[in-house]
Amino acid sequence: MSLSGKTAIVTGSNSGIGLGVAHELARAGADVVLNSFTDSDEDHKLAHDLSQEHGVSARYIKADMSKPDECRSLVERAGVCDILVNNAGIQHVAAIDAFPVEKWDAIIAINLSSAFHTTAAALPLMRKAGWGRVINIASAHGLTASPFKSAYVAAKHGIVGLTKVTALETAREPITANAICPGYVLTQLVEAQIPDTMKEYGMERDEVIEKVLLERQPSKEFATVEELGGTAVFLCSDAATQITGTTISVDGGWTAL
Ligand code: NAD
User: Fold this and answer.
1) Domain housing 39
2) Ligand 1 site, residue 186, Cβ cutoff 6 A
3) What CATH number is associated with residue 91?
4) pLDDT tens-digit profile of 27-70?
5) Do residue 194 and residue 238 come from a single domain?
């Protein structure tokens, strides 16, 4: 399938899942806008390299997804948005009664409210273009819970709800809205947790991966950023025209437990 002529904005896409999804959309022919809150040469090089690799147009726009006006101005500055991937996200792990208020506020702002603001700015552009796809990167934690992740689980359940409302409000238009719910994906974020966990449990790397990280993932394998990107490309295909307001789990069986 070809996404040639479509433009995708992927929030939080200078690493991990966002960058992987951007590459798969570009491989399918979409022009891409990468984003994060930094503005380094490296950020702009990611867009340059993506453009070279896939022969599409790509640029990097700095915008802090914790700030409502920057979420909206990201879309406005892009000027066109056929595919919106709300991916930016952070995590903090602590019990509710010890959870820092500023961490709660930041997680709700970046993981949930940003998607409300970007969607509000993108829908008029999709309506003007006569086609649109909203793809929210939720999580297995949008469907299930774990202790010590109150803000993350609340935000991810919230984005699943926002996805459903977006789908209902656009149901009679050529626009769909869905959430992808990944299980564990070995991004830099997860990789960084492995050495400390090895020390904490006195385990080897492989044991930490199988018994701690993938404890709830029956396949005992990580999902990959390419698989998530492929799922996003599928949601942009004609075959997915009637798929709207739902979640697609890419979690090795986690939510079947
Ligand atoms: P990551 O840390 O590699 O990516 C997070 C991205 O968000 C980065 O590009 C970062 O720059 C960006 N970001 C953070 N704060 C931002 C801000 N204020 N403004 C703009 N961008 C900001 O981690 P990842 O694992 O690729 O996570 C991406 C998404 O996938 C998140 O929403 C996360 O919750 C979700 N997810 C990840 C996993 C996993 O196992 N890795 C599982 C389920 C869901």
Assistant:
1) 7-184+223-250
2) no
3) 3.40.50.720
4) 999 999 999 999 999 999 999 999 999 999 999 999 999 999 99
5) no
